[in-house]
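Fold this complex.
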Amino acid sequence: MTNNATVLDTRSQILERIFLAHYQWLRRTLQRRMGDAFGAEDVTAETFAQVVALPHPETIIEPRALLTTISRRVLFGIWRRRDLEHACLEALALRGRDTCHSAEEQALLVEAVMLIDKVLDGLSCKERRVFLLYKLDRLGYEEIGDLIGLSPSQVRRVVAKGLRHCVAAVST
Amino acid sequence: MNAHTRSSSDFILNQAVEWMLRLEEGDLTHSDRARYDAWQRADPRHAEAISKLMQAAKYFDVPRQMGIETDTLLQKLEKSTSRRKLLRNMAVLAGMTAGAGWLVHRGASGLNLSADFRTATGERHSYRLPDQSLITLNARSAADIAFDSHERLVRLRAGMLIADVAHDGQRPFVIDTLYGGVRALGTEFQVRLLPDGAEVAVASSKVEIRTHSGATCQVHAGERAMFTSHSIETPSKTQDGAMAWVNGYYVALDEPLTHVIDALRPYRRGIIRVDPAVASMRVSAALPLDDTDRALNSLASIMPIEIQRYTPYWVIVSAR
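Structure:
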């Protein structure tokens, strides 16, 4: 058995070794791909922040493959956020009432839509519509059922599924 | 996670969802309500699942209260989802995969890797050039020099630099950028590359900007001007302290917080995210560039903001 101090030491040594060996490589690679030095720096840093958060860094066998995978996820996350920000602005512009909205209101909306997007991710088109009609438009099972062509108990089952996705989305 | 805890956590989740639906349906009797309270107290995981459901419900309240309806939101999300797929495919085509593909384009677009002078994050460096001129590169900057018998050319590829130009009656001193060149007619000036143009600030004497489209303009001591490939802004007064970074300080005089944070970024690895709610707050401060933690802390001590550090690489600046 090793004691805790040894384990901690090893962990930070492993992370440091990975960092030293691959940081510049990843940053340069991303910079070449993105054509943007500062953006690449951000993605690289966030990628390493996620590696630091991994529970068992000693199990990393192919660090570059891992870093590539994580950095791609980070990059898509950034793109996704940008897209959702666009979607939010457009949705705000389209809504029926006055069009005045503060930067704070926008930021709140983007945060909310990021989570909603995560919840909807595992649902089919029909299920998404059902769940949003329930949550946003506050319709009852019967009204939704009439709109979508489902029975009230089927609608209730879809809403339950959406709620289970909510717990998963809030947990990550 | 073993099979037992997994199945029991699924079971708890289903129970919590069922209670949530019943609560929202609003037909609980007194005894149902008592059973629900008892269930919630029976296990901390029960209460946790319910609180997560309540938390998620709040997110859905945001677009609802802003008057955004289901069909609008779905339509906008759908559009951005198809764009996401497109982007993903493009990234794969462009070789965003591990392996030999990484090495192919090095020379073509690896802009700053082969620069004569380049500084890393948090690094500032002065270089004495062959003609005794001195250039100082701010952090995350890169430049090449190309001196010949007609001209002393420094090509700024990224970031910003200050040039303290030695006199040479024969060969003009020019800082060239993507957008155009800045010719020294005197001694000390600064050029900074920005995403959509370049900025010149002059400390003494004057310089002449010549854009790639051929527009020219002189900028005098104490003035600054932005230029792009085809236009030059009318010069305006510089702030005192615009060049204080040479001495390791960023001096802000009634500037928005985002500008100040932007100036710290090249001195810090990782991400500094600024909450839009505080981004436009005005700041006046002199901040040490070489100790960004101290700089962030002193901002927090003079403003109603909070600095949250999740890892050394991840800092969020938000309202307190």
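Chain B touches chain A through 66 residues (CB under 8 Å).
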